[in-house]
UniProtKB/TrEMBL annotation:
Binding partners and assembly: Part of a multisubunit complex that groups tRNA ligases for Arg (RARS1), Asp (DARS1), Gln (QARS1), Ile (IARS1), Leu (LARS1), Lys (KARS1), Met (MARS1) the bifunctional ligase for Glu and Pro (EPRS1) and the auxiliary subunits AIMP1/p43, AIMP2/p38 and EEF1E1/p18.
Protein name per UniProt: Isoleucine--tRNA ligase, cytoplasmic
Pfam families with a match to the protein in the record: Anticodon_1, DUF5915, tRNA-synt_1, Ubiquitin_IARS1
Transmembrane segments: none
Role according to the record: Catalyzes the specific attachment of an amino acid to its cognate tRNA in a 2 step reaction: the amino acid (AA) is first activated by ATP to form AA-AMP and then transferred to the acceptor end of the tRNA.
HAMAP family for the chain: Ile_tRNA_synth_type2
Occurrences of domain Methionyl/Valyl/Leucyl/Isoleucyl-tRNA synthetase anticodon-binding (ranges): 708-863
Isoleucine--tRNA ligase cytoplasmic ubiquitin-like domain mapped to chain residues: 1119-1202, 1218-1293
Organism, scientific name: Hirondellea gigas
Length: 1294
């Protein structure tokens, strides 16, 4: 066996998860664990993973952390299932995100500013900031436990990466997929460059724009339209395009009218679509229709231009009515103004009429910065969006404006500069994509996505409408497009490598950014012609990232066979926004190059939003800093929270820090407690038995204990489940099973086996149970290591010390171990089902004890288990001993016939859950549910729902009550409490005998001792003596001690002796003189060591000092529930030597206890004020010391004083009967009422409105989105951003 000894584990509340994780980071760094694991796996089958490159111009956010965690879990799992997984970090270093930062910093407004600075200097500035936050990225990513290679990274600015981009482009060019064209495209005036359609779709915003109707007088067309002086009317939200108007367009087959206005504001004669008359007229009386006709009737009709900037085009057919089927009756006037170089549909229609040609210079009087050029003399130099109002004013002065207003609509903004896009015709280089739509859908069908609906719907729909991809950008910092062309574009050379450029140009090339190659020319093949020059454009940065599978390995110049053997990738993962970004560009390039998908498996995650559902915003500060969350709860908690969220199912996640904290408490603390308990019991075993505990799987004797078999089976079932789910890339299903597993381990296995684990059932049973627990912990550590790498490493480093020195499971790190193989022969579905039945019985019994306030310490006569299936009852009886012990009952009886006991079921609807949903059908559903039979109710509990009066009612939306019928109904109802779940019905006999009550008192004493030992932070192996005294030495409690002494001492593992026998030299560890059991006062003292003699009694101390009662700022209105003021007459942790005061709620909402007993009252006060737990404290009520209270109602709405040792009780005389702190009452529509404290203790600072409203909902509603109102009429909703100053002593209505 290993010679190393297990290290002790301190109490969990003393453990800082973040600090323990920092230690693990140091261990990994010291051992170089990541690189070592890669060396160990280098000869194993490869699992290929592509890491999408982020920009390093900003800090990582929760979206990056979520995606990075998904990638880390999958790649760790792949490694630990026998694969070699190369993980290289990548950086997107080119493009708009970088250039925009430089433009902002250096006040660059357009291309002329860059020209003045020089491209070399501009690119140098860009190069200097591309890794601005690289160090922070590496630090944060590493802190989160993600293993990825930053040293062997790839950056899109590396010349070898850029060379592969040239090769990819060269292949597409050779296939005839590259062409140059003029196309109307989304254009960013903020970045002076066109954008692709998928970029334009990334940042839509609701915005307000002009809505204007312009009139175009008809020239010599009275016969056509049926009236003199008629005017065509067109609607637009882009007045800046009106100076470029060349035509009007109507739908040839839809109905148009000539209409005369009858009102003062609409007196003219207008030509428009009949279906759109409401655009100009409010009601039919406001107009008179003069003539009806089809739209084609207007074709060729001339009108007077708005401006004469392009009057020369009249000779080519401009300023006439054209026909186009894209015109619709959904908006506007049915007459669309045509500015062909600012709208794609406009361009196609005007082109088809020959007014413009494909090869002519565009009629585009707007420069790259979005400013009007000299052609538009009235508005030259003005930005188009800023000129809108002046254009409207100019046209109004000319009498051409029919009406003008503002419109709210969704409009695309530049994803980088956040400025509104315009649509503008620009010369661009394109990749042909439209012809590949079917092939793209076919390659997409060969991939596997989680979740699948994103692939089949969102992504497939995008592919069906795929358009040719504009890959050129009129920018500077990017991979130059490698096309060298003649001035007439008749000669084009596409360069595919650096070597080829050197060969054709005769120049040495080391870098291929614009500043390094723009000057290079290539001799023309045509005699006498000037040399070829490179075109000025660079690649869209999405083209660079879409080519990363090839460029990251410098394919095909290097690693050719290595790449081809591992393509396509086994796995990629990014956010849902990449369906129109990286996922799309990857697929387009891969399909165009190889006719294959670039990846096999993909996890697409949803967005991470702020807790209020809004986008996370640095400006709004509506989310907690990720680093601070990690520093509070640890990276493991954040990782598990994220991968258990809706975001891993492609839905959006509202990030809530409280939920990270809850996961820590729900999973990690119980898990750590189970591990700590194992270590404690091994230490006890080795000390008591003088043996060394070791684990050698080859020598382990398989336990036959049913609970050992069950937890082993459950562990193997979980392992089997995890392997199945991970194979399907369903990470989100793992955490719920983990929560259940931790519950089974701590609350069932360890709880049921404490005696065995402690050695009370003999050495052999102790060893078997410890071996089982070790096996389970080690298996769990191994299978959870990809998900929670820190805590699993912490546990493994200690657990591995008991492994045999030759064990295959012994390694420097848990992450060197492979995932355990599922041992199918250890899985017993029968055993798991049996224990599940046991759990049902126990949980129902616990519920019934709580309902009648009967602690488990007190024995009860009998529990009756009723179920129709004999197998379930057989399982229950085989596990009878566990039920007896856990429920503390004398007899377990089973039956298949509930009628034998006169039990019948009655169902009622849950008004709180169903009220809002059922509305007018409430009474009908209520009556129908009340009439359900026993069989129907049982069926509902089993199936989970029932159909009632057209409504589907879930099982948890009805309340099932149990009644006794027949002649013995009164007798049975006084004796038994009944409850059931979907598995069994139980009856609990709640009439204990005197003997049972005495045993319960003995357990009460044990409980007080154990609590005191825990308070003193003692462990089971500590040798101590417990001394006691009571106010009535001849009373019932002393008789209980005498009758059950052996049982008590065995359980507390220490001698229990009267305090009068205690020697004066005994060293006191802790004492408690406030315990009260059944009206008897019990004082307990724990001393160091086992007693060997007895001595003098304890000396009593005096209380000294001075305190004052607080009586200022008291409210005249009280909370709507029970409360008590607490005043601490000492120095709190906050350092305040004056009185510390606050208020504790005894219930919240009304009827739901928060503080249940006297002890909890004191603990709540300690938590509130933060005073030293080691110091004794006495409670005073109305100036009198109180040592125990049977019913806390006696102190409700009063003030108690907590007086510590060494302080005077003289200040505890004034009783205050109104609350000390500010509060607000809460009332729901269902009648539930409660309260929220606005500060506690006094002077600690008020809670924010958002916190108050969140608490209000939690207290009186299950709906986290319930609206909170300031008035009972519920007409004044409360704003979460407002102040709480006016809330004091008022009521919030839900």
């Amino acid at each position: 066996m290993g010679e190393r000894k297990l290290s002790s584990v301190c109490e969990v509340d003393k453990i800082s998860f973040p600090e323990e994780e920092e230690k693990i980071l140091q261990l990994w760094k010291q051992l170089d664990v990541f690189q070592t694991s890669l060396k160990q796996s280098k000869d194993k089958p490869k699992f290929t993973f592509y890491d999408g490159p982020p920009f390093a111009t900003g800090m990582p956010h929760y979206g990056h952390i979520l995606t990075g965690t998904i990638k880390d879990i999958v790649t760790r799992w792949a490694h630990q299932t026998g694969h070699h997984v190369e993980r290289r970090f990548g950086w997107d270093t080119h493009g708009l995100p970088v250039e925009y930062e430089i433009d902002k910093t250096h006040n660059i407004k357009g291309p002329e500013d860059v020209a003045a600075m020089g491209i070399k200097h501009y690119n140098s500035l860009c190069r200097n900031i591309v890794t601005r936050y690289a160090a922070e990225w590496e630090e944060i990513v590493t802190r989160l436990g993600r293993w990825i290679d930053f040293r062997n990274d790839y950056k899109t600015l590396y010349p070898w990466y850029m060379e592969s981009i040239w090769w990819v482009f060269g292949q597409l060019y050779a296939k005839g997929l590259v062409y140059r064209g003029v196309k109307v495209m989304p254009f960013s005036t903020g970045c002076s460059t066109p954008l692709s359609n998928f970029e334009a779709g990334q940042n839509y915003k609701d915005t307000q724009d002009p809505s204007v109707v312009i009139q175009f007088p008809v020239e010599d067309g009275s016969a056509v339209v049926g009236a003199e002086g008629a005017m065509l009317v067109a609607w637009t939200t882009t007045p800046w395009t009106l100076p470029s108007n060349l035509a009007l367009c109507v739908h040839p087959e839809l109905e148009y009218v000539t209409v005369k206005g009858n009102s003062k504001e609409r007196e003219g004669v207008y030509v428009m679509m009949e279906a759109r008359l409401q655009q100009l007229f409010k009601k039919p009386e406001d107009y008179q229709i003069l003539k009806r006709y089809k739209g084609r009737h207007l074709e060729g009709l001339s009108y007077t231009p708005l401006f004469d900037y392009f009057k020369q085009y009249k000779a080519r057919g401009a300023f006439k009515v054209l026909c186009g089927t894209y015109v619709n009756a959904e908006s506007g006037t049915g007459v669309v103004h045509q500015a062909p170089y600012f709208g794609e549909d406009d361009f196609q229609v005007v082109l088809s009429y020959g007014i413009i040609t494909k090869d002519q210079s565009p009629i585009c009087p707007v420069d790259d910065a979005g400013r009007f050029t000299s052609e538009v003399t009235h508005f030259q130099g003005r930005h188009v969006k800023e000129a809108d109002n002046d254009i409207i004013k100019h046209l109004r002065d000319e009498g051409r404006v029919v009406c003008a207003d503002r419109i709210n609509h969704s409009y695309p903004y530049c994803w980088r500069s956040d400025t509104p896009l315009i649509y503008r015709a620009v010369p661009s280089w394109f990749i042909r994509v439209q012809h590949m739509q079917d092939k793209l859908l076919e390659t997409n069908s060969q991939t596997y996505w989680v979740p699948n609906f994103v692939k089949e719907k969102r992504f497939a729909n995008w592919l069906r409408d795929a358009r040719d991809w504009a890959i050129s950008r009129n920018r500077y910092w990017g991979t130059p497009i490698p096309l060298w062309v003649s001035q007439d574009l008749q000669e084009v050379v596409c360069i595919t490598s650096i070597a080829e450029l050197e060969q054709l140009s005769g120049e040495k090339v080391t870098d291929i950014h614009r500043d390094s190659i723009d000057h290079i020319t290539i001799p023309s093949n045509r005699p006498g012609q000037p040399p070829l020059q490179r075109i000025s454009e660079v690649f869209d940065c999405w083209f660079e990232s879409g080519a990363m599978p090839y460029a990251q390995v410098h394919y095909p110049f290097e690693n050719k066979s290595q790449f081809e053997d591992c393509f396509p990738a086994d796995f990629i993962a990014e956010g849902i926004d990449q369906t129109r970004g990286w996922f799309y560009t990857l697929l387009v390039i891969s399909t165009a190059l190889f006719g294959r998908p670039p990846f096999k498996n993909l996890i697409v995650n949803g967005l991470v939003l702020a807790s209020d559902g809004q986008k996370m915003s640095k400006r709004k500060k509506n989310y907690p800093d990720p680093v601070s969350v990690v520093n509070k709860y640890g990276a493991d908690s954040l990782r598990l929270y994220l991968v258990n969220s809706p975001a891993v199912r492609g839905e959006n996640l509202r990030f809530k820090e409280d939920e990270v904290k809850a996961l820590l408490k729900e999973v990690f603390i119980p898990w750590l407690n189970a591990y700590r308990y194992f270590v404690q019991q091994v230490e006890r075993l080795e000390k008591d038995e003088n043996i060394v505990f070791g684990y050698d799987s080859a020598k382990i004797i398989q336990s036959t204990n049913v609970m050992d078999c069950w937890i082993i089976s459950f562990t193997q079932s979980l392992l089997k489940f995890m392997k199945k789910e991970m194979k399907a890339y369903r990470l989100y299903t793992v955490t719920p099973r983990l929560v259940k597993f931790v519950d089974n381990l701590t609350n069932w296995y360890i709880r049921f086996n404490r005696k065995r684990l402690k050695g009370d059932s003999g050495l052999q049973e102790c060893q078997r149970s410890l071996e089982t627990l070790f096996n389970v912990l080690l298996t769990m550590v191994r299978m959870m290591s990809p998900f929670t790498p820190f805590i699993t490493e912490t546990m493994y480093q200690n657990l591995s010390k008991v492994l045999d020195s030759k064990s295959e499971l012994l390694a420097d790190s848990v992450h060197y171990l492979m995932m355990p193989e599922t041992e199918h022969h250890l899985i017993s579905e029968r055993t798991e089902a049996a224990v599940a039945s046991l759990q049902s019985v126990v949980e129902l019994g616990r519920y019934l004890r709580d309902r009648i306030n009967c602690p488990t310490k007190y024995p009860l006569p009998e529990v009756i288990v009723i179920q129709k299936e004999q197998q379930v009852l057989k399982d229950v009886m085989e596990l009878e001993s566990y039920i007896k012990e856990e429920l503390n009952v004398r007899v377990v009886t089973t039956s298949t016939d509930k009628n034998k006991y006169g039990v019948c079921l009655k169902a009622e609807i849950n008004f709180k859950l169903l009220g809002a949903r059922l509305k007018g059908d409430m009474k009908k559903v209520q009556q129908a549910v009340a009439e359900l039979t026993d069989e129907q109710i049982t069926s509902t509990l089993s199936s989970g729902s029932i159909e009632v009066v057209g409504h589907s009612i879930a099982a948890d939306e009805i309340v099932v009550k149990y009644q006794f019928s027949g002649e013995r109904a009164n007798e049975l109802s006084s004796k038994y409490q009944a409850h059931s779940d979907a598995t069994v019905l139980i009856l609990l006999d709640t009439t204990p005998s005197q003997e049972m009550l005495s045993e319960g008192l003995a357990r009460e004493i044990i409980n007080r001792v154990q609590k005191l030992k825990k308070k003193a932070r003692l462990v089971p192996t500590d040798e101590v003596t417990v001394w006691y005294s009571m106010n009535d030495p001849s009373g019932e409690l002393q008789q209980v001690v005498d009758d059950h002494l052996s049982y008590i001492e065995t359980t507390i593992r220490a001698p229990l002796r009267p305090v009068k026998q205690k020697l004066s030299g005994e060293v006191t560890i802790v004492e408690d003189n406030t315990a009260k059991i059944k009206d008897a006062s019990l004082m307990l003292v724990i001393t160091n060591g086992y007693t060997g003699g007895f001595g003098n009694a304890l000396q009593n101390g005096n209380i000294a000092g001075d305190t004052k009662a607080l009586a200022n700022g008291i409210n005249s209105v009280s909370p709507s529930i029970s409360w008590v003021n607490v005043v601490y007459c000492g120095e709190a942790r906050r350092g305040c030597r004056s009185l510390t005061s606050g208020t504790l709620l005894l219930e919240n909402p009304s009827g739901v206890s928060v503080v249940k007993d006297f002890d909890q009252l004191k603990e709540e006060a300690r938590t509130l004020f933060g005073f030293d737990k080691r110091k004794g404290v006495e409670i005073f009520l109305d100036g009198k010391a109180v040592t125990q209270l049977k019913d806390l109602k006696t102190i409700a709405r009063k003030t108690v004083h907590l007086v510590p040792e060494g302080h005077s009780a003289s200040a505890a005389q004034n009783g205050i009967t109104t609350p000390l702190v500010k509060f607000v009452n809460v009332e729901s529509k269902t009648g539930a009422c409660g309260s929220v404290l606005l500060e506690n203790p006094v002077g600690s600072g008020a809670s924010s409105m958002a916190q108050v409203l969140s608490l209000a909902r939690r207290v009186c509603s299950n709906d986290s989105n319930a609206v909170c109102y300031a008035d009972k009429a519920r007409s004044q909703p409360l704003d979460s951003n407002s102040s709480t100053a006016e809330l004091d002593a008022t009521t919030i209505y839900l």
